[in-house]
Amino acid sequence: MNKILTHITIEATSALKIGSGNSDLFIDSPILRDFNGLPMILGTSLSGALRAAIDKSKADKIFGSMDTGGSALIVSNALLLDENNKVHEKLITQKSNFLKLFDTLPLREHTAINEFGANVNGSKFDEEVLFKGTRFKFALEIPSEFKTEFDEILKVLASPVFRLGGGASKGFGAFKIISIKSAELNLQEYSSSLNFEFKGETKEIKSDHLSDFDKYELKLSPDDFFMFGSGLGDGDADATPVFESFIDYEKAKLSQKHILIPATSIKGAVSHRSAFYYNLQNSDNKVGEENPAVRDIFGYKKDKDISGAKGKIMISDCYKSFDDTKTKVFDHVAINRFTGGAIEGALFQEKVVQTDEFCIEIFLKQNIDEKSQKAFESTLLDITQSRLPLGGMTTKGHGFFSGKVYKNGEELK
Length: 413
Fold this sequence. Notes:
The protein is α+β, with helices and mostly antiparallel strands. The chain has helices at about 45-55, 55-65, 95-100, 145-155, 265-280, 290-300, 370-385; strands spanning about 5-10, 40, 75, 80, 105-110, 125-130, 135-145, 175-185, 200, 215-220, 245, 245-250, 255, 260, 315, 320, 325-335, 340-355, 360-365, 400-405, 410. Strand 17 and strand 18 (about 340-355) form a beta hairpin.
C-alpha cells in the first residue's frame, strides 16, 4: 500500500506557548522539551488542533471515531530545527551555540484583572514561551486513497487563523509555512526520520479557511509616550517596557531586542470597554464573564454547572524595532500630603517609549451577537480616537493613540 508522506517546516510568527503541564521552582508554566532539552510540539497536540479545525464528518473519516475506527492520518512530533535545518532525533552530547539559545526562553508575566480594571491579589503568574522565528519540522502520513481529504488538512494548516499551542486569543501560536514537501511512496522507499531526503514536489497551498472570520486592523500612532511594562527594571529605570528578541536562522543567532506590544494587554482593555458599551445598549451593569459581550467574544471558564467556551477572537502581538523607537526616562517621587515635601526613599524612574505607526491584527468570528459586535467595534474606534489608553501608567497620560480601524480592508467609521 502506498502512502502520501509530507514533511512540513513551519516558523513561528508570534511567541508560541507549548506548555508542559508542569511547573517548577522558577516558572509557573514552562514549555515542553524533548530528551535533548529542546522545545518540541507533540504530535497529539498537532492532531487535536487539526481535527478541531475541520468539519466533523471529514474529521471522523480522517482521524477516526467510534463508528469509523482508527485514524488514517499519522502525525509525528514537531521537532526543533537547528542552524543547519536538521532535527535531532537521537541523544546529543554537546549542543551547538545556536541550540543553547533555547536554554533560556522569554517569560510572559500575567495577572488577572477584575471588573474595575485593577489586578486581582495573588493572581500574578508567568509563562515560558518560544521565540518568534523558531522553526519546527513534522511529518504527516496518510494512505493514498485519502488524497482529497489530505488536501483539506493542508489548507487548514495554511490558514492565517489556525494556531498551535495555547493562548490563541492572547496572541500566541501564529506561524507560517516555510516548506511543504510531499510524495507518494511505497514501504521500500519510505523512512520515518524527519531528516529523510525524498524526491517530492514542493507544494503551494492556498487556504480558504478565513471565510467565517472578519479581519480588523488597528493602525495606530502614539499621541505621546506609552509603556507595556515588563515588571522589571534596568540600569536606567525601575520600570521598563517589555522587550523580546527573535530567532534569526539566517544569522544563526538572536536578533536585537524589540519593543513588544503584547496582545494580552490589548485584550484586557478591549474586553473591559466592550462590556461597557454592551451595558450602554441594554441599560445593564453586568461586568466580566457575566457580561454577554465578554462571554460571546472572549469566552468564559468552566464551572460546576457550565462547560465553558473558547473565545472567538485572536489578537496578534506587535513588535517594533529599536531603530523605529525612542525611549525616555521620567523621574518620580512620592509626595507627603501633609508637608508637600518628598518622602525619603520614594524616588523611582520609569522608561517609556515613543514610536511611529504600528498595526495590530485582530480576527473575530462572524457568528457573534450583533450587539456584541457593535460594542466591540465601538471599543476599537475609542482606541483610535484617544479615548481608551493601552498599556501601563495610563493615569499619567501615557498610552493614548490615534489612527484608523479597517474591517476586511475597509475603514470602519
